[in-house]
TrEMBL record, chain A:
<comment type="function">
    <text>Mitochondrial membrane ATP synthase (F(1)F(0) ATP synthase or Complex V) produces ATP from ADP in the presence of a proton gradient across the membrane which is generated by electron transport complexes of the respiratory chain. F-type ATPases consist of two structural domains, F(1) - containing the extramembraneous catalytic core, and F(0) - containing the membrane proton channel, linked together by a central stalk and a peripheral stalk. During catalysis, ATP turnover in the catalytic domain of F(1) is coupled via a rotary mechanism of the central stalk subunits to proton translocation.</text>
</comment>
<keyword id="KW-0809">Transit peptide</keyword>
<keyword id="KW-0066">ATP synthesis</keyword>
<dbReference type="GO" id="GO:0045259">
    <property type="term" value="C:proton-transporting ATP synthase complex"/>
</dbReference>
<feature type="domain" description="ATP synthase F1 complex delta/epsilon subunit N-terminal">
    <location>
        <begin position="70"/>
        <end position="142"/>
    </location>
</feature>
<comment type="subunit">
    <text>F-type ATPases have 2 components, CF(1) - the catalytic core - and CF(0) - the membrane proton channel. CF(1) has five subunits: alpha(3), beta(3), gamma(1), delta(1), epsilon(1). CF(0) has three main subunits: a, b and c.</text>
</comment>
<keyword id="KW-0472">Membrane</keyword>
<keyword id="KW-0139">CF(1)</keyword>
<dbReference type="InterPro" id="IPR036771">
    <property type="entry name" value="ATPsynth_dsu/esu_N"/>
</dbReference>
Automatic annotation (TrEMBL), chain B:
<dbReference type="InterPro" id="IPR000131">
    <property type="entry name" value="ATP_synth_F1_gsu"/>
</dbReference>
<keyword id="KW-0406">Ion transport</keyword>
<keyword id="KW-0375">Hydrogen ion transport</keyword>
<comment type="subunit">
    <text>F-type ATPases have 2 components, CF(1) - the catalytic core - and CF(0) - the membrane proton channel. CF(1) has five subunits: alpha(3), beta(3), gamma(1), delta(1), epsilon(1). CF(0) has three main subunits: a, b and c.</text>
</comment>
<dbReference type="Pfam" id="PF00231">
    <property type="entry name" value="ATP-synt"/>
</dbReference>
<dbReference type="GO" id="GO:0045259">
    <property type="term" value="C:proton-transporting ATP synthase complex"/>
</dbReference>
<keyword id="KW-0813">Transport</keyword>
<keyword id="KW-0496">Mitochondrion</keyword>
<dbReference type="GO" id="GO:0005743">
    <property type="term" value="C:mitochondrial inner membrane"/>
</dbReference>
């Protein structure tokens, strides 16, 4: 009867190690209860599928006092550039102009345009050139920045930028259709933003 | 000696009708496995079988190796793309139980088979979701990525398929490719809610069927006004385009492409993992089968040699006596 007692006792300890091969730990199970109920009604035999909430780390609640640091998540399709990093300030290139974000910033959704994203941490300033994307600033001093493409500014080749700018300006002048014109305009915008990022 | 016996055995199999039924009844134990009138089963058949099993084992082993190397490449990419959807879920939450008129189920599957149950899992989940979200005055359509889910869904819900896209993984997946695809889907189907069904990679032997929901901008606004999970959205200041609707539209499209990108990568990763474990178990099965066949082969050979010996000795003793 007690033969399995040791294994039963050991189980909670094993829980942490047996997950070692999995690549990301699911947070505490967060389920949409009405969805699960509806699912059980339709198909009692099949387990309901997971929803993204089950894989998310829960975000902290809005603190009552103003935090001294801003938590930044900066993600790209192929990498997480910054993940829950605590910094002093970020400046994001919103379509309405450069926007500085300090801890306790009002909750905002902003579209990004090609420009420089700078992350200020003490005296260190890291500058990235982002192509486009979105920035969400939450009330709990967490900023999520999603960009389609981003590179550190010091890795940009100034000569290629000049050449690209010339090419696209030429294309813009010789464009005949609306589509060509729009494509060339985007090229000119991106390259002039790159240029001003390098010089400014 | 053994080879000579084998050769004779082969010849005997070629002329099974010559052996007399009285004689064959004497050797009853090999009679059980042999066709009628044959003294013992031919080793030729077993040898051919062994050869084919060996070849199958070689193929499955090679496929396992290929899947393992592909998995390693794609796993890092899938893991790196995991950050991409989290901001959207943090902002807009996740509402799989939202009640809308037009739902579109985007089923992500693979183009190739031999990868365990991942495709049938996503098809099964999609079917139940279809049942769940259909009702009076409601419309549910499928958008299918990948050959395998198409083959399964076309059988019973041909009319509900509005778009199917295959050969997704011909080139290595990248974001621009997937966003073109997402744009294609957004242009061609009308939706209030998109439900993306894919298998999230958990480990080589485990994958989780997952449903992500993307709401259309109108529904996002409706839900935000109604309060509930999306109620907080109203407290956000929106900067960018002139109207809130425009930003929400951009946001929904961007969200869909990001979630689809992650979903496609996760599914490709699960596919390779599932293929690897499926091929591993089938090469193991082939090995077991080969062991059994070798045992049968040796036993039969030994039996035939013994029979030959008995025949010779009894013939000799008959001559002597």
């Amino acid at each position: 009867m007690f033969r399995r007692a040791t294994t039963l006792l050991r189980r909670p300890l094993m829980g942490a190690t047996s997950r070692r091969f999995s690549t990301d730990l699911p947070a505490a199970a967060v389920e949409d209860s009405s969805f699960v109920e509806a699912w059980k009604k339709v198909s009692p035999n099949v387990d309901p599928p997971k929803t993204p909430l089950a894989y998310m780390k829960p975000r902290p609640a809005t603190p009552s006092s103003l935090p001294s640091k801003l938590t930044v998540n900066f993600v790209l399709p192929y990498a997480s550039e910054l993940s829950a990093k605590e910094v002093d300030m970020v400046i994001v290139p919103a379509t309405t102009g450069q926007m500085g974000v300090l801890p306790g910033h009002v909750a905002t959704i902003a579209e990004l345009k090609p420009g420089v994203l700078s992350v200020h941490e003490g005296n260190d300033v890291t500058k990235y050139f982002v192509s486009s994307g979105f920035a969400f600033i939450h009330a709990n001093s967490v900023a999520d920045i999603i960009a389609v493409e981003a590179v550190p500014v010091d890795r940009i080749d100034a000569n290629l930028v000049q050449k690209g700018l010339q090419d696209f300006t030429q294309k813009l002048n010789s464009a005949t259709t609306d589509l060509e014109k729009a494509e060339a305009q985007i090229g000119v915008d991106v390259h002039s933003a790159l240029n001003s990022a390098l010089t400014g | 000696m053994a080879m000579a016996a084998l050769r004779r055995e082969g010849r005997r199999f070629a002329t099974p009708l010559l052996s007399s039924p009285i004689r064959s009844s004497l050797i009853s134990h090999s009679q059980e496995q042999a066709p009628n009138g044959v003294r013992s089963i031919s080793t030729q058949v077993v040898r051919n079988r062994m050869k084919s099993v060996k070849n199958i084992q070689k193929i499955t082993k090679a496929m396992k190796m290929v899947a393992a190397s592909k998995l390693r490449a794609i796993q890092t990419r899938a893991e790196n793309s995991r950050g991409l959807w989290q901001p959207f879920t943090a902002l807009l939450g996740d509402s799989p139980s939202v009640n809308v008129k037009k739902s579109v189920i985007v089923t992500v599957s693979s183009d190739k088979g031999l990868c365990g149950g991942i495709n049938s899992t996503s098809v099964k989940i999609s079917r139940i979701l279809h049942k769940l979200s259909s009702g009076p005055e409601k419309e549910t359509k499928y958008v299918i990525l990948g050959e395998k889910a198409k083959a399964q869904l076309i059988r019973d819900s041909k009319d509900d398929i509005s778009l199917s896209i295959t050969e997704l993984q011909k080139n290595p997946l990248n974001y621009s490719q997937v966003s073109v695809l997402a744009d294609d889907i957004l242009k061609n189907v009308e939706f209030d809610a998109l439900r993306i069904v894919f298998n999230k990679f958990h480990s080589v032997v485990q994958f989780m069927p997952t449903v992500s929901t993307v709401l259309s901008p109108e529904i996002v606004e409706r839900e935000a006004e109604a309060g509930g999970k999306l109620g907080e959205l109203d407290s956000y200041e929106i900067e960018g385009a002139e109207t809130k609707g425009e930003v929400l539209q951009n946001l929904a499209e961007f969200q869909f492409s990001c979630i689809l990108f992650n979903g496609v990568l996760e599914n490709a990763c699960s596919e390779q993992g599932a293929r690897m474990s499926a091929m591993d178990s089938s090469s193991r099965n082939a090995g077991d089968m080969l062991d059994r066949l070798t045992l049968t082969y040796n036993r039969t050979r030994q039996a035939s040699i013994t029979t030959e010996l008995i025949e010779i000795i009894s013939g000799a003793s008959a001559l002597e006596g």
